[in-house]
Design a protein that fits this description.
Distance between the termini: 29 Å
Radius of gyration: 14 Å
Number of helices: 6
Strand content: under 5%
Largest sheet: none
Number of domains: 1
Helix content: 40-55%
Length: 107
């Protein structure tokens, strides 16, 4: 997966943010106008949505915008992630399954 990320330059994300554009796929946030989504204030909402429904490009932008610790904390506190997303996050970010709130719904 890291190989794919080499083809997505960091400058693409920087340009989108500088222009005031929302960097993630619009379809992910069908229920909220993207103009009202603040990248800092709504961090957990963005992380949950991108991890559960985003494209690989969205995941790359997520990793560029937020630290692994910020993402891991949002994943640990989330109660809306599905089983596959929980398992992926557990392996990718090195979070034990028993530390994830959402995993308790699947046991």
């Amino acid at each position: 997966m890291a190989f794919y990320f080499k083809f997505l330059p960091k400058s693409v994300l920087a340009k989108k943010i500088k222009k005031g554009e929302f960097p993630f796929s619009q379809y992910l946030f069908w229920d909220t106008p993207v103009e009202k989504i603040d990248l800092i204030k709504h961090k957990n909402y963005i992380i949950e949505r991108v991890l559960s429904r985003g494209l690989l490009k969205d995941f790359y932008f997520l990793l560029q915008l937020y630290t692994n610790d910020e993402i891991a904390m949002a994943v640990k506190n989330s109660r809306v992630l599905d089983k596959k997303t929980i398992n992926f996050c557990s392996h990718y970010f090195g979070i034990p399954l028993n530390e994830l709130h959402a995993s308790s719904f699947y046991n």
